[in-house]
Amino acid sequence: MTEPQKRSAIDSSTWGLILGMISSIAYMTANLGLRSVAGGHESMSDVDWAIWVATNRVFPVVTTAWTVVAIRALRGLKALPPAKIVLPLIATGLFMQWGGNVGFQFALSRVGLAITVPLTFATVLLSAAIVGRLVINDPLTPYTVWAMVAMMGAVTVLSQGTERATAAMVQQSDIMTIVLGVGTACLAGVAYGSGGVMIRRCVTGDISQSAVIAVLSSTGFISLGSASLWRIGLDKLLETPVDQWLRMLGAGVATAVAFFAITGAYRFLTTIKVNLLNASQAAMAAVAGVLLFDEPNTIWLQLGTILTIVGLILSAQRDKPEQSRQKAPETASTTSVDAD
Known about the structure:
Layout: H1 3-36, H2 46-74, H3 86-111, H4 113-135, H5 142-160, H6 162-169, H7 175-203, H8 209-231, H9 234-237, H10 242-268, H11 271-278, H12 280-293, H13 299-315, H14 323-335
C-alpha cells in the first residue's frame, strides 16, 4: 500500500469514529426526549401514543433527507436510489419504523430508559451478527460468538430487574406487562440491527446516503402518520399538548442528526464497529434513567449494563482476523462513494 493510500485509510477510520460517536450522542439526546413523553396521552392508548410519537420523531428526518435529495438533483448529482433496491428499502423501512421506533417507544412506557436501551442494544448486536452473516457473509469469529453469549447473558440479567422498573412506570404491573416491555425492546433491537446491515450494504456502493434515508424515513412517515389518523383521528391528534409536541420534534431533530451520522459511519466501518461506538448509549441510558427519571437502580441493571459493554467490547475484536483481507476492498469502496 502506498503512503497516500495509508493516509486515506486512516482518514476513513477517523471519519467513521467521529460519525459513530456523533450518532451515539445524538441518539441518546433523542432517547431522553422520547423518555420524557413516554407513558402516553390520557386520550390515547399506549400503542396509539407510541405510533404518534414515532410519526413526529421521523418528520424531521424525512424533511431533511428530501431537502438533501433535492439539492443533489439540482447540482446534477445522483439523487435517487436505483429502482431495484426501492422495494427492499421500503420493506426495511417498515420494519425499522414499526418494529424499531414504535417498539422502542412502547418499551420505554413499560420498562423505562435504563433497561430499554441496554436490552435493545444487546439484540442489535445479536441480530446484526446473524443477519450480517446471512446477507453480506460476515464471518462469525470466536470473539463474535463470545460477544453473543455475553449479550444473551445481558438480556437474561436485565430481564430480572424489569419487575421493579415496570412498577415504576405503570400503576399495575403484571407478567404480561413485563413481557411486552422486554419483548418490544428486543424487537426494536432486531429491527435496528437487521436494518443496519441493509443500510451498510447500500451505502458502501455508489448510492447516496440521503437517498437511502429518504426512502426509509418516507416509508415510516407515511405508514405511521396514516395509522395515527385512522386509529386516533385528527381531532385527538391536535389535542397533543404543545410541550409534548416540542419534545417529540426535538427528539426527531436529534434522530435526524444521528441517522445521517450513523449512515455515514457505515461507509467507513463495519456494522459491528458502528454498533460498538453506539454502545455507550447503554451506560448513558442507565445513568440518565436513574438520575433524571428516578428509575430503580437495581443490581440487575448494573450487571446487565456491564455485560452489555463487555459483549460490545468483545465484538470489536471481530474484524482483526480479516483486517488484512478486507483492507484493500474497503479502501476501494470508500474512495468510490459519492458522499452527500
